[in-house]
Amino acid sequence: MFIKKRPGWALSHSDVTPESVYLNRRKFMAGTIAVAAGLSVPSLVSSAARPVPGEALDYVAMPGFSTDEEKTPYDDVTRYNNFYEFGTGKGDPARYADEMSVTPWSVVVEGECDKPGTYALEDLLKPHDYQERIYRLRCVEAWSMVIPWIGIPLADVLKQMQPNSRAKYVYFETLHDPEQMRGQRSMFSTIDWPYQEGLRMDEAMNELSFLAVGLYGKTMPNQNGAPIRLVLPWKYGFKSIKSIVRIRFQEERPRTTWEMLAPQEYGFYANVNPEVDHPRWSQKRERRLPSGLLSPNWIETVKFNGYGEQVAHLYKGMDLRKFY
Ligand code: MTE
């Protein structure tokens, strides 16, 4: 409905980006010492590539995975955030997230897979070309944005880790470092840190699931989840976990942060669904940002945030009132 019909993978590169840009694709720049003490794969760490904050990234545009709705301005995308590790106010992440250092960065991979280890971020990214996907983001709080993300399909990164047949779910975890994250040292915080999320394996492997390293053509601002975060456009925003440091493949369904905090309000699936209201407010409409008191910009919420064609089959036969 909102997504253009032609899938991105059906386009030739010359359709979507000038050849000079494509050939000259740059990845994160060379030159850092990676902090990584490989578990069973110690040689995974290389000396390549450190994400440079604010650096322009080269990427291939993916019209097949993009909406042509008006993009939310950069200032709103980067100043109206949820990142409780830096406070609960919408402006707190932009104010305080730069207290977190994102270089160097490594991701622990563990559980039911053939390639566990501690991966320097640049090693995870190196084999892949960046794509730009313009997705809608619908927060469970009933506001939404349209954001041009830069990143890599989640499936491509997970395949690198070679999950085995016992891997039914994948679990993600955010950095836990109260020294750098003032929200984690706040005595008012009710969250049991670190922030945790999870997906069923087939959801994770869906073509829409995306690991973003940037937005608006540049590396990710800290407040949006630098240096690497999940983007799952058919689910409420809280599933799109930021600043990921751990990925685990497992047989059992992981428990997730918001589900643990208020299970009657936030479920594991968290698919955008106007037919299932939040116990304290309606999910039938959303405020598309920017919005103000005089022009709240309410629009109708669409099931699966308009991505039903790509994901509805994942939930066939499931009662989505029960599995919210
Ligand atoms: N990830 C972590 N680690 N901590 C958070 O508080 N908030 C979630 C999600 N990811 C959150 C998080 C929520 S509620 C939303 S709506 C999105 O991030 C917001 O992403 P944005 O700030 O980039 O728009």
From TrEMBL:
PROSITE patterns: TAT. It catalyses: L-methionyl-[protein] + a quinone + H2O = L-methionyl-(R)-S-oxide-[protein] + a quinol; L-methionyl-[protein] + a quinone + H2O = L-methionyl-(S)-S-oxide-[protein] + a quinol. One of its GO terms (biological process) is protein repair. Mo-molybdopterin binds at N81, Y84, E85, C139, T174, N224, R229, S240, I241, K242. It is an enzyme of class 1 (oxidoreductase). The keyword Oxidoreductase applies. The lineage of its organism: Bacteria, Pseudomonadati, Pseudomonadota, Gammaproteobacteria, Pseudomonadales. This is Protein-methionine-sulfoxide reductase catalytic subunit MsrP. Its cofactor is Mo-molybdopterin. It comes from the Bacteria. Heterodimer of a catalytic subunit (MsrP) and a heme-binding subunit (MsrQ). Residues 101-258 form the Oxidoreductase molybdopterin-binding domain. HAMAP family: MsrP. Keywords: Metal-binding, Molybdenum, Oxidoreductase, Signal.
